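Model it.
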Amino acid sequence: MALYEYPFNEGIRTMLRLEHLFGRLALLAARDDAMDHHFAIATIFEVMDVASRADLKSDVLKELERHRAHLQAYRGHPGIDESALDAVTARIDTAFAALNAMPGKAGQALASNDWLMSIRSRINIPGGTCAFDLPAYHAWQLHPAERRRADLHGWLSTLTPLAQALAALMGLLRDSGHWQRMAAPGGHYQQNLTQGKSFQLLRVRLNDDTGLVPEISGHRLLVSIRFMRPEADGRLKNANVDAAFELALCA
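Modeled.
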């Protein structure tokens, strides 16, 4: 199944971008090749740029607390597995405490590393990290993979509280949605959203073999999905076919 997600606000948009970057970072840092580690460092800088928003940390903490309060309201209800509820709230508490204890913004500890910042200042210049520009960086890339990975894991540890908090938060948000089977006659679907309920994320799931790509737009009152088909040059064109898909609205 192909999965697409659409954020309804800027906060969730930022969190999805960070989640994407942390996923890429985990893959690159685990590899051995120096080029993979180069792009891991570049991704660290992207995380620092995206996470530089002043209110990001407080937003994540508030959302974790909101989900915790919502879950606590289920205590004592018949049919609720208290042990499962305890496990989820414990995960929230752990993520909240670690992120709350993190000093400043994500990556602030790395900003004082002059060696890393010398790379950051040149990495967006085409060819700016050549050996003659940054000989110390070139020497680092020649180190054994184990040593480079150890350095990467040390730098990543300063970002771990944010990564773990985001993983917990986005997991809770996604779990709040319920999948429903939908139909889009002529490749177009539109739905009015429930007034008084603030949805944060829309998820669309469809079979891989359809070859369709959902083009999603929406706001707090209305969602519109138009199913497109890629042409030979990669551009999207209205499919104009009946499409079946699954939709989940997450709050």
